[in-house]
Amino acid sequence: MERPSEELRLFIAYSRKDKEILDKLNIRLKILKNAQLVDQIWYDELISPGNEWDKEIKKALEAADVILILVTYTFLASDYAYNEELMRAIEYHKRGKKSVIPIIARHCSWTLTPIKDLEVLPKGGCPLVNPSWGTEDIPYHQVTEQLTTLFGNIKEAKRKNLKRYHYQERILKADGLVKEGKLELAIEELEEALTFFEDGFIPERKEMEEKIVGCQKEVEFEKLFEKAVDLCKREDYQAALKVFNEALEIKQTDNLLAQIELASKMIEKIEFEEKTKNPV
Protein backbone atom coordinates (compact mmCIF):
# COMPACT_ATOMS: atom_id res chain seq x y z
CA MET A 1 0.00 0.00 0.00
CA GLU A 2 1.69 3.18 -1.24
CA ARG A 3 1.65 6.21 1.04
CA PRO A 4 -0.29 9.04 -0.66
CA SER A 5 1.42 12.39 -1.06
CA GLU A 6 0.19 15.51 0.72
CA GLU A 7 1.90 17.74 -1.82
CA LEU A 8 -0.06 19.60 -4.48
CA ARG A 9 1.91 19.70 -7.72
CA LEU A 10 1.04 22.26 -10.38
CA PHE A 11 1.96 22.09 -14.09
CA ILE A 12 1.65 25.19 -16.28
CA ALA A 13 1.30 24.76 -20.05
CA TYR A 14 1.94 27.93 -22.05
CA SER A 15 3.59 29.35 -25.14
CA ARG A 16 7.03 30.90 -24.74
CA LYS A 17 5.65 33.95 -26.57
CA ASP A 18 3.29 34.46 -23.61
CA LYS A 19 6.09 34.47 -21.02
CA GLU A 20 5.07 37.92 -19.76
CA ILE A 21 1.62 36.55 -18.79
CA LEU A 22 3.24 33.54 -17.10
CA ASP A 23 5.49 35.84 -15.03
CA LYS A 24 2.52 37.90 -13.84
CA LEU A 25 0.59 34.75 -12.94
CA ASN A 26 3.60 33.33 -11.10
CA ILE A 27 3.70 36.39 -8.83
CA ARG A 28 0.17 35.50 -7.66
CA LEU A 29 0.95 31.78 -7.42
CA LYS A 30 3.90 32.56 -5.15
CA ILE A 31 1.41 33.90 -2.61
CA LEU A 32 -0.51 30.60 -2.74
CA LYS A 33 2.74 28.70 -2.35
CA ASN A 34 3.67 30.76 0.70
CA ALA A 35 0.22 29.94 2.11
CA GLN A 36 1.05 26.21 1.57
CA LEU A 37 -1.86 25.76 -0.83
CA VAL A 38 0.51 24.59 -3.57
CA ASP A 39 3.85 22.87 -3.06
CA GLN A 40 5.44 22.57 -6.51
CA ILE A 41 4.97 24.85 -9.53
CA TRP A 42 6.44 23.45 -12.74
CA TYR A 43 6.82 24.89 -16.26
CA ASP A 44 9.31 24.11 -19.00
CA GLU A 45 11.87 26.77 -18.03
CA LEU A 46 12.67 24.60 -15.01
CA ILE A 47 14.09 21.82 -17.22
CA SER A 48 17.77 21.45 -16.37
CA PRO A 49 20.32 21.76 -19.21
CA GLY A 50 21.14 18.38 -20.75
CA ASN A 51 17.80 16.77 -19.92
CA GLU A 52 15.44 15.57 -22.64
CA TRP A 53 12.87 18.32 -23.10
CA ASP A 54 9.95 16.12 -24.24
CA LYS A 55 10.62 13.46 -21.60
CA GLU A 56 10.76 16.01 -18.78
CA ILE A 57 7.50 17.67 -19.84
CA LYS A 58 5.64 14.35 -19.98
CA LYS A 59 7.05 13.31 -16.61
CA ALA A 60 5.96 16.60 -15.03
CA LEU A 61 2.49 16.27 -16.60
CA GLU A 62 2.12 12.78 -15.16
CA ALA A 63 3.20 13.93 -11.69
CA ALA A 64 0.93 16.99 -11.57
CA ASP A 65 -2.32 17.21 -9.61
CA VAL A 66 -3.47 20.37 -11.39
CA ILE A 67 -2.70 21.50 -14.94
CA LEU A 68 -3.09 25.19 -15.76
CA ILE A 69 -3.24 26.07 -19.44
CA LEU A 70 -2.56 29.65 -20.54
CA VAL A 71 -4.77 29.79 -23.61
CA THR A 72 -3.77 32.10 -26.47
CA TYR A 73 -3.59 31.84 -30.25
CA THR A 74 0.15 31.13 -30.04
CA PHE A 75 -0.49 28.23 -27.63
CA LEU A 76 -3.31 26.74 -29.72
CA ALA A 77 -1.28 27.15 -32.93
CA SER A 78 1.66 25.17 -31.55
CA ASP A 79 1.49 21.52 -32.64
CA TYR A 80 3.42 20.37 -29.58
CA ALA A 81 1.42 22.48 -27.12
CA TYR A 82 -1.89 21.37 -28.63
CA ASN A 83 -1.19 17.67 -29.19
CA GLU A 84 1.24 16.82 -26.39
CA GLU A 85 0.14 19.15 -23.60
CA LEU A 86 -3.47 20.18 -24.18
CA MET A 87 -4.74 16.82 -25.48
CA ARG A 88 -2.87 14.87 -22.81
CA ALA A 89 -4.32 17.16 -20.17
CA ILE A 90 -7.83 16.64 -21.58
CA GLU A 91 -7.31 12.86 -21.43
CA TYR A 92 -6.17 13.04 -17.80
CA HIS A 93 -9.24 15.14 -17.03
CA LYS A 94 -11.62 12.67 -18.68
CA ARG A 95 -10.13 9.83 -16.63
CA GLY A 96 -10.60 11.86 -13.46
CA LYS A 97 -6.88 11.80 -12.69
CA LYS A 98 -6.18 15.54 -12.64
CA SER A 99 -7.86 18.94 -12.46
CA VAL A 100 -7.37 20.84 -15.71
CA ILE A 101 -7.96 24.60 -15.60
CA PRO A 102 -7.73 26.61 -18.84
CA ILE A 103 -6.96 30.29 -18.19
CA ILE A 104 -8.01 32.38 -21.13
CA ALA A 105 -5.03 34.71 -21.43
CA ARG A 106 -5.76 36.46 -24.74
CA HIS A 107 -8.66 36.64 -27.16
CA CYS A 108 -8.65 33.46 -29.26
CA SER A 109 -11.04 30.87 -30.71
CA TRP A 110 -10.80 28.50 -27.71
CA THR A 111 -14.47 27.52 -28.11
CA LEU A 112 -13.45 25.61 -31.27
CA THR A 113 -11.23 23.31 -29.19
CA PRO A 114 -11.89 20.69 -26.47
CA ILE A 115 -11.34 23.50 -23.96
CA LYS A 116 -14.96 24.46 -24.55
CA ASP A 117 -16.03 21.46 -22.40
CA LEU A 118 -13.98 22.62 -19.41
CA GLU A 119 -14.60 25.27 -16.76
CA VAL A 120 -12.40 28.20 -17.71
CA LEU A 121 -10.95 31.16 -15.85
CA PRO A 122 -11.58 34.04 -15.60
CA LYS A 123 -15.27 33.30 -15.17
CA GLY A 124 -17.16 33.73 -18.43
CA GLY A 125 -13.98 33.34 -20.49
CA CYS A 126 -13.09 37.03 -20.57
CA PRO A 127 -9.32 37.04 -21.25
CA LEU A 128 -6.71 38.30 -18.79
CA VAL A 129 -5.46 40.75 -21.41
CA ASN A 130 -8.53 42.86 -22.05
CA PRO A 131 -8.93 46.66 -21.72
CA SER A 132 -12.45 46.18 -20.31
CA TRP A 133 -10.96 45.11 -16.97
CA GLY A 134 -9.64 48.61 -16.41
CA THR A 135 -6.62 47.27 -14.53
CA GLU A 136 -4.86 43.94 -14.98
CA ASP A 137 -4.98 43.32 -11.22
CA ILE A 138 -8.70 42.55 -11.42
CA PRO A 139 -8.60 39.45 -13.70
CA TYR A 140 -5.44 38.10 -12.05
CA HIS A 141 -7.03 38.54 -8.62
CA GLN A 142 -10.18 36.77 -9.79
CA VAL A 143 -8.12 33.84 -11.08
CA THR A 144 -6.10 33.73 -7.85
CA GLU A 145 -9.28 33.63 -5.76
CA GLN A 146 -10.68 30.74 -7.81
CA LEU A 147 -7.39 28.83 -7.61
CA THR A 148 -7.27 29.40 -3.84
CA THR A 149 -10.60 27.61 -3.47
CA LEU A 150 -9.61 24.81 -5.86
CA PHE A 151 -6.21 24.20 -4.26
CA GLY A 152 -7.74 24.31 -0.78
CA ASN A 153 -10.27 21.61 -1.74
CA ILE A 154 -7.58 19.42 -3.29
CA LYS A 155 -5.31 19.79 -0.25
CA GLU A 156 -8.21 18.83 2.02
CA ALA A 157 -8.92 15.75 -0.12
CA LYS A 158 -5.23 14.81 0.09
CA ARG A 159 -5.32 15.20 3.86
CA LYS A 160 -8.29 12.84 4.04
CA ASN A 161 -6.55 10.33 1.76
CA LEU A 162 -3.53 10.37 4.04
CA LYS A 163 -5.75 9.80 7.10
CA ARG A 164 -7.42 6.92 5.26
CA TYR A 165 -3.99 5.46 4.52
CA HIS A 166 -2.88 5.68 8.16
CA TYR A 167 -6.19 4.17 9.27
CA GLN A 168 -5.86 1.20 6.92
CA GLU A 169 -2.20 0.80 7.86
CA ARG A 170 -3.11 0.51 11.56
CA ILE A 171 -5.95 -1.93 10.85
CA LEU A 172 -3.69 -4.22 8.79
CA LYS A 173 -1.05 -4.12 11.51
CA ALA A 174 -3.64 -4.87 14.19
CA ASP A 175 -4.97 -7.84 12.21
CA GLY A 176 -1.44 -9.22 11.93
CA LEU A 177 -0.88 -8.81 15.67
CA VAL A 178 -4.16 -10.60 16.43
CA LYS A 179 -3.03 -13.55 14.31
CA GLU A 180 0.25 -13.60 16.24
CA GLY A 181 -1.64 -13.58 19.53
CA LYS A 182 -0.23 -10.16 20.48
CA LEU A 183 -3.61 -8.82 21.50
CA GLU A 184 -2.50 -5.96 23.73
CA LEU A 185 -0.38 -4.54 20.92
CA ALA A 186 -3.30 -5.06 18.53
CA ILE A 187 -5.52 -3.00 20.87
CA GLU A 188 -2.99 -0.16 20.78
CA GLU A 189 -3.03 -0.18 16.97
CA LEU A 190 -6.84 -0.24 16.86
CA GLU A 191 -7.07 2.66 19.29
CA GLU A 192 -4.54 4.55 17.16
CA ALA A 193 -6.68 3.78 14.08
CA LEU A 194 -9.64 5.44 15.81
CA THR A 195 -7.71 8.73 15.94
CA PHE A 196 -7.86 8.78 12.12
CA PHE A 197 -11.61 8.23 12.10
CA GLU A 198 -13.45 10.57 9.79
CA ASP A 199 -17.05 10.34 8.60
CA GLY A 200 -17.43 9.20 5.04
CA PHE A 201 -14.36 7.12 4.42
CA ILE A 202 -14.07 4.35 7.02
CA PRO A 203 -16.44 1.83 8.66
CA GLU A 204 -18.81 2.88 11.44
CA ARG A 205 -17.05 3.91 14.64
CA LYS A 206 -19.25 1.49 16.60
CA GLU A 207 -17.88 -1.43 14.58
CA MET A 208 -14.30 -0.35 15.35
CA GLU A 209 -15.04 0.07 19.06
CA GLU A 210 -16.61 -3.40 19.15
CA LYS A 211 -13.45 -4.81 17.60
CA ILE A 212 -11.35 -3.19 20.33
CA VAL A 213 -13.67 -4.51 23.05
CA GLY A 214 -13.43 -7.99 21.49
CA CYS A 215 -9.62 -7.88 21.69
CA GLN A 216 -9.74 -6.57 25.23
CA LYS A 217 -12.02 -9.45 26.24
CA GLU A 218 -9.67 -11.91 24.57
CA VAL A 219 -6.73 -10.46 26.53
CA GLU A 220 -8.70 -10.73 29.79
CA PHE A 221 -9.73 -14.28 28.92
CA GLU A 222 -6.11 -15.30 28.32
CA LYS A 223 -5.08 -13.80 31.65
CA LEU A 224 -7.82 -15.70 33.51
CA PHE A 225 -6.95 -18.87 31.63
CA GLU A 226 -3.31 -18.60 32.70
CA LYS A 227 -4.42 -17.90 36.27
CA ALA A 228 -6.68 -20.98 36.28
CA VAL A 229 -3.83 -23.13 34.98
CA ASP A 230 -1.55 -21.82 37.71
CA LEU A 231 -4.16 -22.58 40.40
CA CYS A 232 -4.57 -26.11 39.10
CA LYS A 233 -0.83 -26.65 39.32
CA ARG A 234 -1.02 -25.61 42.94
CA GLU A 235 -3.98 -28.00 43.38
CA ASP A 236 -6.29 -25.15 44.41
CA TYR A 237 -9.10 -26.58 42.33
CA GLN A 238 -11.91 -24.62 43.95
CA ALA A 239 -10.25 -21.30 43.13
CA ALA A 240 -9.34 -22.60 39.68
CA LEU A 241 -12.98 -23.49 39.03
CA LYS A 242 -14.06 -19.99 40.04
CA VAL A 243 -11.55 -18.40 37.67
CA PHE A 244 -12.51 -20.94 35.03
CA ASN A 245 -16.16 -19.77 35.25
CA GLU A 246 -15.06 -16.12 35.08
CA ALA A 247 -13.26 -16.92 31.84
CA LEU A 248 -16.40 -18.52 30.44
CA GLU A 249 -18.40 -15.42 31.36
CA ILE A 250 -16.01 -13.34 29.24
CA LYS A 251 -16.69 -15.73 26.37
CA GLN A 252 -20.36 -15.11 27.21
CA THR A 253 -21.34 -18.74 27.08
CA ASP A 254 -22.55 -21.43 29.47
CA ASN A 255 -22.39 -23.99 26.66
CA LEU A 256 -21.22 -27.37 27.98
CA LEU A 257 -19.16 -27.96 24.83
CA ALA A 258 -17.33 -24.66 25.41
CA GLN A 259 -16.60 -25.68 29.00
CA ILE A 260 -15.21 -29.05 27.92
CA GLU A 261 -13.11 -27.38 25.22
CA LEU A 262 -11.68 -24.90 27.73
CA ALA A 263 -11.00 -27.61 30.29
CA SER A 264 -9.25 -29.73 27.67
CA LYS A 265 -7.13 -26.77 26.64
CA MET A 266 -6.18 -26.20 30.27
CA ILE A 267 -5.22 -29.88 30.81
CA GLU A 268 -3.16 -29.92 27.60
CA LYS A 269 -1.27 -26.81 28.71
CA ILE A 270 -0.51 -28.29 32.14
CA GLU A 271 0.62 -31.61 30.63
CA PHE A 272 2.81 -29.83 28.08
CA GLU A 273 4.50 -27.73 30.76
CA GLU A 274 5.03 -30.81 32.93
CA LYS A 275 6.67 -32.67 30.05
CA THR A 276 8.85 -29.64 29.35
CA LYS A 277 10.01 -29.57 32.95
CA ASN A 278 10.51 -33.34 33.14
CA PRO A 279 11.62 -34.61 29.71
CA VAL A 280 11.86 -38.37 29.36
List keywords for this structure.
9 helices; alpha/beta; single chain; four-stranded parallel β-sheet
What does this structure look like?
There is one protein chain. This protein is an alpha/beta fold and 280 residues long. Helices cover 60% and strands 7% of the residues. The chain has nine helices and four strands; from the N terminus they run E-H-E-H-E-H-H-E-H-H-H-H-H. Strands 2-1-3-4 form a four-stranded parallel β-sheet, with helices on both faces. Helix 1 links the parallel strand 1 (9-13) and strand 2 (40-42). Helix 1 crosses helix 5, helix 6 packs antiparallel against helix 7 and helix 7 (205-233) packs antiparallel against helix 8 (237-250). The model has no long low-confidence stretch (mean pLDDT 84).
Which geometry do the CA atoms define? rod-shaped
Total of helices: 9
Mean pLDDT: 84
Major beta-sheet overview: 4 strands, parallel
Which helices and strands, and how do they pair?
Elements: E1 9-13, H1 19-34, E2 40-42, H2 53-63, E3 66-71, H3 73-77, H4 79-94, E4 99-104, H5 137-179, H6 183-194, H7 205-233, H8 237-250, H9 256-277
Parallel strand pairs: 1-2, 1-3, 3-4
Helix pairs in contact: 1-5, 5-6, 6-7, 7-8, 7-9
Describe, in short, the structure shown:
This protein has helices spanning 19-34, 53-63, 73-77, 79-94, 137-179, 183-194, 205-233, 237-250, 256-277; strands at 9-13, 40-42, 66-71, 99-104. It has 280 residues and is an alpha/beta fold.
